[in-house]
Design a protein that fits this description.
The complex is a heterodimer of chains A (about 190) and B (about 325). Chain A is mostly helical. Chain A is built from seven helices and no strands. Chain A has a domain of about 120 residues. The longest helix of chain A is centred in the C-terminal third of the chain and has 40 residues. Chain A starts with a helix and ends with a helix. Chain B is mainly alpha-helical. Chain B contains 14 helices and two strands; from the N terminus they run H-H-H-E-H-H-E-H-H-H-H-H-H-H-H-H. Chain B has a two-stranded antiparallel sheet. The relative contact order of chain B is 0.07. Classes of the chains: A mainly alpha (about 190), B mainly alpha (about 325). At the A-B interface, helix 1, helix 2, helix 5, helix 6 and helix 7 of A face helix 6, helix 7, helix 8 and helix 13 of B.
Chain lengths: ~190, ~325
């Protein structure tokens, strides 16, 4: 739990900091904009608070940086020591893309070879065939869900997904308590003012 | 010396267990390395004892175990020259396969494996091996009665890695205990990730509605939280909040809380130092024990830009006069 609370405190700090930066830029925002800002700040804060080199973190941050308006926000949140990340990101992403592509080519040729060998009973075992299709489908879906998941092989995808789940849990915890606290605050305010 | 030696580590759930197992593993590894050295000196051993190890971090609950397969074998060039297909194929139960692995990238050079099978390229392998000696290698030994094809070995290693991670998943994702099989587990993961993401969306929407502006006032939130706990008997969810050690504040006394709630401006100056502490951090009041985290968090918050909190000044000014405070965030 100790590391968890540390992570949570880091997350809150960065989140509040990010929100302040957003707040200072514009005065009046409508509801949807506010929600977007909150979510964005939360995501970036989480990714930077983790301070790790998992690829979903990097993918999230680089995704956010693509939009110019978020750039200052992201830079401020990341802090000076982590600003090296974007360069790494590009390398990693391009490298992983290349890797993925070359792997795909390898796999395809490999599969063709194997298929040539196993011309025998192709679909005698329908169950496994179906399972394989299902698994394929679901890995595709998971790749879409996890940020930066498209360019990962299956093993690291699962690892990233689990890490991502952990951090999402933390994020949800923190946000929920904050929401409850503000709710209580507002309620008490209203009752007091009555 | 024939050994069939394929071990994967089971990660126990408690920290003490992992400590012990780490020790055990280290000892075992030392033994194995010694034995390997002996075997090499004997000169008859082109069969490695193989280990695939995964070392976890001790704190498993919220930290992610380190998945880097750290195998501390050291490939020795003379051994690679013993790659002789005919020799190996006579021992059907044992085959070695070296999988080169870059750090953090789990590529399997299956091509490299298949190259080993041909005698003519065994010599070519030598410089390659020497180059990649510093990288980590996974040596895998085929189990008795199973296929010794390099491809299937690679497949098996991969499958076992995946199944190991599926085990972690069962602990992490609720309701995964009864599901076996990759497809079902993947389905659960997907559902869980989607639900978590939707929760984040929903919560951010809720926060957007609750707060007219984007500034959140953590100080007053925490204080209010404390007050509301005795007053309304709020759910334990709030008590277990991430606002650390709220209980320590609660212990400081409930009576002034009522006065604060009723907005008595002439409140006693001997208001619990909690308020003072949470609001003005330039002067840390002595005698208040806070967790280090809390200190740092508040200090960070206070040092940032100030935005006045709209709803509270009239509540607190009376009490804070003595402490020379403006509510600042």
């Amino acid at each position: 739990m100790h590391t968890c609370t540390k992570l949570k405190s880091e997350f809150i700090k960065k989140w509040m900091k990010g929100l302040q930066i957003c707040c200072s830029s514009k005065t009046n925002m409508d509801f949807l904009e506010r929600k977007k800002k909150i979510k964005l700040c939360a995501d970036i804060a989480l990714a930077s608070a983790k301070n790790s080199t998992t690829s979903w973190c990097i993918a999230l941050i680089s995704e956010a940086k693509k939009h110019d308006e978020n750039k200052t926000l992201v830079d401020n949140l990341l802090g000076p020591e982590l600003r090296i990340k974007p360069q790494k990101t590009n390398h990693q992403m391009s490298a992983s893309h290349k890797r993925a592509r070359s792997k795909k080519i390898l796999k395809k040729s490999h599969h063709v070879c194997q298929r040539m060998k196993k011309m025998g009973p192709p679909k005698s075992n329908i169950a496994t065939y179906i399972t394989k299709i299902l698994v394929k489908e679901r890995t595709q879906v998971l790749k879409r869900l996890v940020p930066g998941g498209e360019s990962m092989d299956e093993i690291s995808l699962i690892k990233e997904a689990l890490d991502y789940i952990l951090s999402l849990k933390v994020q949800v915890d923190v946000m929920r308590t904050l929401a409850n606290a503000t709710e209580v605050l507002n309620q008490s305010d209203s009752t007091i003012f009555d | 010396m024939l050994h069939c030696h394929y071990t994967t580590m089971n990660i126990p759930g408690n920290t003490s267990g992992t400590d012990v197992s780490v020790l055990e593993r280290q000892q075992a590894r030392m033994k194995w390395q010694q034995q390997q050295q002996e075997g090499l000196s004997n000169g008859n051993d082109h069969r490695f004892r193989a280990r695939v190890e995964i070392k976890p971090d001790p704190d498993l609950q919220y930290e992610w175990p380190d998945f880097s397969d750290a195998c501390q074998d050291q490939l020795i060039p003379p051994l690679m020259t013993d790659h002789n297909v005919k020799k190996r194929k006579t021992h059907e139960d044992y085959k070695q396969k070296a999988v080169s692995k870059e750090n953090g990238v789990k590529d399997k050079k299956i091509k490299g494996c298949s190259d080993e099978n041909s005698t003519e390229t065994s010599l070519k392998e030598k410089p390659k091996v020497v180059e990649t000696q510093k990288q980590e290698y996974i040596h895998v030994r085929a189990r008795r009665g199973q296929a010794t094809d390099s491809h299937s070995l690679a497949e098996r290693v991969r499958r076992e890695k995946i199944s190991e991670r599926m085990k972690y998943l069962q602990d992490l994702v609720p309701g995964c205990n009864k599901i076996t099989g990759k497809a079902g587990m993947l389905d659960e993961i997907i559902n869980y990730v989607q639900s978590l993401q939707k929760q984040v969306e929903f919560l951010s929407m809720k926060l957007a509605t609750l707060q007219p502006r984007l500034d959140f006032d953590i100080d007053s939130l925490i204080m209010k939280e404390m007050f509301e706990i005795p007053a309304i008997g709020y759910s334990s969810e709030v008590a277990n909040s991430t606002y650390f050690q709220v209980n320590s504040l609660l212990e400081m006394g409930n009576s002034p809380i009522d006065t604060m709630l009723r907005r008595s401006t002439g409140g006693p100056v001997s208001i619990p130092e909690a308020f003072v502490l949470s609001s003005c951090f330039n002067q840390m009041q002595p005698g208040v024990t806070w967790d280090g985290d809390l200190h740092n968090l508040y200090r960070m918050e206070i040092q940032q830009e100030s935005t006045t909190i709209p709803f509270q000044p009239h509540k607190f000014t009376g009490s804070y006069e003595g402490s020379n405070l403006k509510m600042e965030l």
